[in-house]
Amino acid sequence: MKLLVTGGAGYVGSVCAARLVESGHEVVVVDDLSTGHADAVPQGCRFVEADVAEVAGSVLAERFDGVLHFAAKSLVGESMVDPRKYWEGNVVTSLRLLEAMRENGTPRLVFSSTAATYGEPDSVPIPETAPTAPTNTYGATKLAIDQAITSYASAHGLAAVSLRYFNVAGAHGQFGERHTVETHLIPIVLQVALGQRDQVQMYGTDWPTPDGTCVRDYIHVTDLADAHLLSLQHAEPGTHRIYNLGNGTGFSVKQVIDTCREVTGHSIPAAVAPRREGDPASLVASSQRARDELGWTPHRADLTTIVQDAWNFAGLGRPA
Ligand code: UDP
């Protein structure tokens, strides 16, 4: 297939673009490099450095078989203090992309949605039928885009899939996570092991969880990328399917730090810090629908494998 990958210079986008090229697809990446890195765009992709909202129409005027839409603003804390950046950067940009797809007859869309659309769940594991009640602006914008996609699928025949990621981690060889402002747990903990930080702060040890720290479902980025390839094959015209992607096993912040200690051999000092606003206590996916309908099976579900791959990538010493 000939595919447009928006945000293909970012973490998840670059890994998916690499997997698509490895699988023989023709890939065009559009990324404005606001948070991505030009050297993360995989070899074999055509790269257009531009804002998706501005160039979607002209790029899609060439015939494409589908779009994988990763380009987004994704910092929860920032979304609470600068909502315009998120409603415009995520929702307005996605509407422009949907319109460009409609005008040019682009048939398929795979969208990066998020577990943040569910907010504080009533119970875990979370199925796709759980109520959506985002607790932050980031999640609200992703939910709004999901709803717009549903409308476009039913009105205009788009074949669409939204993948709701839980905690993406690990690396795919030379493609991994390097945010200028790092907020994610595993890369922060590994920065301590690399001597780039003195300690990791655990945001709350008084949560209603077995060891008092928050529980999350960590999924390997390569397994996540595989779900995108399967979604392209299974998307059906006029239908918008939503799939949760996680391993179905929760690990606490303390368990993640312990695993990082084992993998790196570093003592990794950890300090107790106040809770972070907007954090749910526990987020664990039910990915049964993705397994049943897409035939998706995670092959790197083990937390040690996820951390080891992230550690190997961190050792490449790429600048943030
Ligand atoms: N966390 C932490 N210290 C950090 C970064 C994150 O204790 O320096 C916790 C955070 O409160 C959450 C978990 O680690 O419970 C995962 O956070 P992350 O930002 O990686 O992903 P999120 O679940 O927010 O998408």
From TrEMBL:
Molecular function per GO:
UDP-glucose 4-epimerase activity
Please write the reaction equations for the catalytic activity of this protein: UDP-alpha-D-glucose = UDP-alpha-D-galactose
UniProt-listed Enzyme Commission number(s): 5.1.3.2
Cross-referenced Pfam families, in alphabetical order? Epimerase (PF01370)
Q: Which cofactor does it need?
A: NAD(+)
Give the GO terms filed under biological process for this record.
galactose catabolic process via UDP-galactose, Leloir pathway
Q: Does the keyword Transcription regulation apply?
A: no
Alphabetized UniProt keyword annotations: Carbohydrate metabolism, Isomerase, NAD
- InterPro entries (alphabetical): Epimerase_deHydtase, NAD(P)-bd_dom_sf, UDP_G4E
Q: What SUPFAM superfamilies has UniProt attached to this entry?
A: NAD(P)-binding Rossmann-fold domains (SSF51735)
Please report the stretch or stretches of sequence annotated as the NAD-dependent epimerase/dehydratase domain: 4-246
Q: In which pathway does it act?
A: Carbohydrate metabolism; galactose metabolism
Cross-referenced NCBIfam families, in alphabetical order? Answer: galE
Q: How does it assemble?
A: Homodimer.
Q: Which family does it belong to?
A: Belongs to the NAD(P)-dependent epimerase/dehydratase family.
What name does the UniProt record give this protein?
A: UDP-glucose 4-epimerase
* Species name: Saccharopolyspora montiporae
Designated gene of the protein:
galE
